[in-house]
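dumping this here before i forget
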Amino acid sequence: MDRLTSLARSLGIVDIGVADPKAWETDPMAASIFESERPTSLMIGARSVIVIGIPVQRSILATAPSAYYSEHYKTINSMLDHAAQRIAMELNILGYEASYIPRDGYPGIEGLMRDPSSFFSHRHSAYLAGLGTFGINNMLLTEKNGPRIRFISVVTTAELPYGKPMKRKLCTECMRCNTECPADAVASEMYPKGISEKKRCVEYSAILRKKGCSPCGRCIFVCPVGDDAGGPLPTEDAVAHVRSYTK
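structure:
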């Protein structure tokens, strides 16, 4: 595991954890995951799910929705895909089967408009690996970055030391994500009882994409959870200036 962690760090990965594939069958939070969307279905004989994450920089997120944040989002996604594939290759070199699961398991916004879901949930992987807990906005909240982090997973036949779900609740239920959502898509109750209106979120993202500034990002920006929540931000004038460059 030390070898994989060192490799992940060299690729810009901040958080890394491992989930037990069997946890999808036993943990109540994973009960909503269809069997076909679980690691043991995507790879017969899977013994570990490696989860890696890269934080969203809050000072950039402050300008969202904007072309600035949109480009940052794309860069993080590209880095995650590259890092996960490289880790899978390293496991292959060590003699194990391993495959990474793309950070977005759906065919773009058009695909989400037809079906607002993906074929694999990385946030549940991160939860089962012990990297965070769910919040009102249905996102995974972490101690360091709140919901401002994106994850990707690698499924492998290598047996690695597993993490366990975090017992401490991180969400403060301040409801800022709910009140700040421009699409009125965020639930009013804690996940999994409260489920966000994915279709409304996707429809708003489609509008922003035409302007060249998707995704929205407001619900994760206003969340007060995370060590990064008190970090420096751009001035209001700078935010307005950056947003003026959207189409």
